[in-house]
Amino acid sequence: MLNFDISFIEAARPVTVLKMSGELDAASYESAIDKTADLYADGTRDLLLDLGDLTFMSSTGIVALHSMAMIMRGQKLPEEDAGWGKFTAIARDVEASSGPEAHLKLLSPQARIRKTLDISGFSQILEIFEDQNAALAAF
Amino acid sequence: MMLEKGLPPIVFNDLKINNISKLREIVQLHALSMGGHPDAVADLVVAVNEAAANIMRHGYHGRPAKIEITLIQEKDDLLAVILDEAFPFNPLDNNQPDTTLPLDQRQLGGMGVLMMRKFADQISYQLTAEGKNELTIRKKNAFKDFQKENNKDAQF
Description:
The complex is a heterodimer. Chain A is of the alpha/beta class. In chain A, 37% of the residues lie in helices and 24% in strands.
């Protein structure tokens, strides 16, 4: 099960903090994507994912994070069955850009989830912070 | 393989992606009840989850799956032996994604298998005489002082 808590922070830029608690897996990943889409539709343009209470993330969670990043870029999501092809659009942009994603950042992932992010290479695409103030200042 | 200690197989009938958390919960409870170190058990559960999700997606194509998991203690190691009756398929045959390549140059698929390999110490596959897929996932030193033995700061 995956639970969400949302807060809005007025930093140098308005940032939405989406706290995801519980487990991000094949059963719950779509809800994370949908929640992000809703936030974007409501005007969120910078999103900080608080993963401090996320206790489990499978490889499907990586797919969710990618989709969430694309949403925050205002891009159309790839087809459902695109597999690793889902990563190509974001990968090309990261390759062309001077840094990681500008509109989606991560806060305080637990060690095992950090390992998954490192294994997948997503820790290079999505900035990870342990301090919320530092994360907010990075947008 | 000499079996030292284990519990009866855990049989999951009609398993679907939307209740895969139940599989994780039961495997974790059983492994902890055997005396597995919590960190080792948590790593094993990640690997088992990826294996089960793989079976459900690619073996059963979303249909209700029957998966049998046997947890075994072999000296200090914890093994999860996963049996399924889907068509013969060795998930380890797929090439691992080379994560040093830019993402748009990596092969499609393989992330789940990569995670299995990184969270477990050894994975092996065989097709049984009954035609079942048998995947064995080993977590070493799961019954010892896991953090001391495995140096949690090790690079991967």
